[in-house]
Hints:
This protein is an alpha/beta fold. Helices cover 39% and strands 16% of the residues. Strands 1, 2, 3, 4, 5, 6, 7, 8, 9 and 10 form a ten-stranded mixed β-sheet that branches. It holds the Pfam family Abhydrolase_1.
Amino acid sequence: xxxxxxxxxxxxxxxxxxxxxxxxxxxxxxxxxxxxxxxxxxxxxxxxxxxxxxxxxxxxxxxxxxxxxxxxxxxxxxxxxxxxxxxxxxxxxxxxxxxxxxxxxxxxxxxxxxxxxxxxxxxxxxxxxxxxxxxxxxxxxxxxxxxxxxxxxxxxxxxxxxxxxxxxxxxxxxxxxxxxxxxxxxxxxxxxxxxxxxxxxxxxxxxxxxxxxxxxxxxxxxxxxxxxxxxxxxxxxxxxxxxxxxxxxxxxxxxxxxxxxxxxxxxxxxxxxxxxxxxxxxxxxxxxxxxxxxxxxxxxxxxxxxxx
Length: 308
């Protein structure tokens, strides 16, 4: 582990080695605090939690905010490794990060890819996870379902996923990653008036040399059009069975998120442990649009755990 120069954030960037990655992360709060791992998505970075993390740290949490694979200073440990963006890989990253840091049963909390990775980790390794906060409900990708069409309005919202299935889309992401990211921020959070500086700081994480490969693989695998890592197929097979999440969970919906029309309240049956669903007047990026709501969800899960 090391502390490097600040990377677009006031917190110093630290590094830890996992099976595949030299993973970069920020850390807030006391080293002996109750553990939380906050996970961002695409196209975002750790700055999505720059208001959430201090709230939790002030409440006694040790807060870890990793750059996901393909973002920021996080790097694969070998040039020969597959630049894999599939959900089982990203879920395993969180478990390996926790193990490498010596953290016992952290609360996992995330949105977008980070919500997906947190749900995957909670579903597959519940003995290693204390609690869960998931934006967009039971956010485990159903690969078989992804092979079939959505209603036209949602297909239009998912234009970027369709673009990324082609080599033209790979070239577009490579050349115009910042323009695409800015468009998605605006489309997914239509009432959020973010400043250019806010976007620019986050978009610096897209300069990672593996960004394009990881993003393209993630969406092609999601649509069943590109193979994943064969070693991870048993995990994907388990996820295809929609395993119930048994740990204490708060799920969150944003009322202005075009990616989740109608919300995810109907996912409740997949959470068989203590569960609460929260709806907030926000778009897709709830941690940045409504940080007190996201932080309160984590604190609620912590209080449940303390009361057990």
